[in-house]
Write a structure and sequence with these properties.
Blueprint lengths: L1 E2 L2 E2 L1 E8 L7 H9 L1 H7 L4 E6 L6 E6 L4 E5 L5 H13 L32
């Protein structure tokens, strides 16, 4: 995804094993889908990395110095392309956990209402 017209993903590392069965999908992805993905995204530096004996990974490095790693073990080439597209489309921010289930400008002073509320008489 771009922030003010600047793509946030700088570098994508495709890590795979040339022997293992869990890397079968990413090897097929590299043959069929990866050249078109590189051609569509000239702003992105794509590096392939051979790691024998390890499961395949996609590593994304962002402009804000964050890194995301996605395991693509036993995935089809279409699923690997979807994971690579998600890495490209994300901004690389850390995921923040919300403190409440709802976000409002004017929070209730008394608290949130629930069905199991006990009213004292």
């Amino acid at each position: 995804m771009s922030l003010r017209g600047v793509w946030q993903l700088k570098k994508l590392i495709v890590s795979f094993c040339d022997w293992g069965g869990s890397s079968r999908g990413i090897r097929a992805f590299m043959e069929s889908e990866l050249p078109a993905f590189i051609e569509k995204n000239p702003q992105l530096e794509v590096v392939t990395e051979l790691n024998r004996g390890y499961h395949p990974l996609l590593k994304g490095f962002y402009k804000n110095k964050n890194e995301r790693v996605v395991c693509v073990k036993n995935m089809t080439p279409e699923d690997v392309l979807q994971c690579a597209s998600r890495l490209r489309n994300s901004q690389g921010r850390k995921v923040l956990k919300l403190k409440t289930r709802h976000v409002t400008k004017h929070p209730s002073v008394q608290g949130t209402w629930s069905t199991d509320l006990k009213i004292a008489n």
